[in-house]
Amino acid sequence: TTKIILDCDPGHDDALALLLAVANPMIDLLAVTTSAGNQTPAKTLNNALRTLTLLQATTIPVAGGNQTPLVAPLETAPEVHGESGLDGAELPAPGFAPQPLTAIELIAQTLRQSTEKVTLVVTGPMTNAALFLRVYPELAREKLAQIVYMGGAMGLGNWRPSVEFNIFVDPEAAKIVMNFGLPLVMAPLNVTHRAQIHKDEIAAVGGIDNPVAHAYFGLLNFFERYHEDPKWGFVGAPLHDPCTIAWLIDPTMFTTAKMHVDVETQGELTRGETVCDYYQLTGQPANTEVLLDLDRPRFIKLILDSLKHFN
Ligand code: BDR
Ligand code: CA
Question: The complex's ipTM?
Answer without folding.
Answer: 0.99
